[in-house]
C-alpha cells in the first residue's frame, strides 16, 4: 500500500470510530461494486448512512469537506441505490449520505468533522 492509501485507511479508521462514538453501528467498510466504492455503511437508529471519508494532510490541497463535488454526490447517490437494491431496499428511517473530513497535521492529533446529509 502506498502512502496515500495508508493515509486514506487511517482516516477511514478514525471516521468509523467517530461514527461509532456518535451512536451509529458500522455495517460495512469499503463496500465495492462496478460503479464504485462506499467507504462506510452504517446504521443511525433506523436510518441507513452511506459515508464518504476524505483525509488530507494539513496545509495540502483543499479542505477535505470541499472534495464532494456535484459529480461525486451523484455517484454516491447511484451507489446508495445499488446498495439498497442488493440489500433489500430502504429501511424505515430512510437513507442519508454523510461525509467525514479528516485533517492530519504534522504534529498533534488529527481533526475529524462529520457532516450529515451532504448529498
UniProtKB/TrEMBL annotation:
Belongs to the UPF0102 family. This is UPF0102 protein AN221_00310. SUPFAM superfamilies: Restriction endonuclease-like. HAMAP family: UPF0102 (MF_00048). Signal peptide: none annotated. It comes from the Bacteria. GO terms for molecular function: nucleic acid binding. It comes from Streptomyces nanshensis.
